[in-house]
Amino acid sequence: MSYTGADLIADALAQLGVEHVFGIVSIHNMPIMDAINRLGKTRIIDVRHEQAGTHAADGYARATGKLGVMIASTGPGTSNTVTGLYEAQYGSSRVMVITGQAETAFYGKGLSYVHEAENQVPMLASVCRRVESPRHISQLGLSFATVLNDMFTGRPAPGALEIPIDLQYAEAERMDFAYPDTGAEFMPDEKRIDQAIDKIKNSGRRVIVAGGGVIAAGATAELQALAQKLDCPVLTTVDGRGIIPEDHELCVGNYYNSAGIYDAIQGADLTIAVGTKFAVGVDGQFQAQTPPGEMIQIDIDGNMIGRTHTAHLGILGDAKAALAAINAGLDETLPNDGQFNQVVWEARDGVRHAMRARLGEDWPQVMDAIRARLPRDGVFVRDQTISAYNWGNQQFPIYEPRTSINPTSGAIGPGFPMSVGAAIATGKKTVVIHGDGGFMFHATELATCAQYQVPLIVCVFNDSGYGVLRWLQDTRFGRINETDLGKVAFAQMAQSMGVPAERVQSVAEFEAALDTAMAADGPYLIDVDMEHFAPMEISVMPKKKVEVDIRN
Q: Are 16 and 179 in contact (CB under 8 A)?
């Protein structure tokens, strides 16, 4: 049997160590699917929707740092991947979509060829940094390598490869594939490193703000070493959680945007910002929260340096290399001002206590139950939902990098499929917390979980609607509309697709169900009927502070 374009793609994935890909089979990708299975080096995970599969590839990439791959069909299949690619782009995640296309002889002729999508490349380019579409079999290998090299050069990003169906069948020549070695390209400027060291030595009240770029660079050890040398508080972004264990004495956590913490760090004379974009929230929230003192900003993407806030010293380069160089230049410890640190620690403890108190009687117990049972290296995924906003994104302790995953774009719905990808990637017990509204976006992936016995615990916090939006409407307009969805029997839904499940109406029932779920080899769903739990205070993007009963 001849070696085809499809074989080349299967071979490339195998050479790169890609153990799983997500996909939906179609007339326009059958050769690739067949080649992957014939080679036997990569396992295909059959998802139920291309958007979910792309989110799953994203979760796979975030949980491991490896390449996440979704194989789709041209036209409607590829258009379904766009939302997943949008999230991957927003979260700087390495997700590759490989899709088909009409035969080259028909491409661009406007003859209504089945699944014809002549503007597929510009559509994909709107959410990918690099898209390639070879027109001859001799271009296929180079096109794949070009997308791969872009994704793994500089800031991580998604990419896409469109392959006309005739090229998948065409005879091809074997190629060698490898991840690019771009270390030398992103070494920081030595003079700027020296300037950073001088600024650090001439300061005495420092804070570190660390984002997902530290995790992407594999620089958590270097950042922790710097924090230790400076006896310096470390604040993280939501995507930077796990950079430093959240039970570490120097960790403040994901509280930079908390008013109490922000006020406490105002005495700082230097902010060291690493791998963070300083994302601006809804209504322009947080843009006015200028980092205190002078700011050293380290980022692999020069476009991010000084973009949101003035960088008094910008260092363009790989975070791991930059932090290692700074550490090497600090040959002794330079302890922070003790009084300044004490103010920060008291604020940290006060904010944590106050936020926990807002959860009411039941929800702290729910949170603690999950944390007590999930191993330190277990993956914890959140969708955008009340429980994520109120305790999942800040109060639930995270101990290791790549164990905290959430939709960076703020979308509802990606959490569940991202958790599927993370669980498959790691093989570890994974927990996802979800609202019922967002869960309905991809509920059919329960069938995927059952098919592959994914080690995933799905906790659906069911308040019969879009709870966060319902609260926002009531807060801003004094009324609600289009946010009530009715109560779905998610346990029965899961059982119908082969996933064991139960509905719980108390903390005791939740804890018992969680024990059962942890003991299960495959997936388990817990439908948490919030109507029977004590209310919590909600304070998400408020125009005014109110206390609401989420049982209503």
A: yes
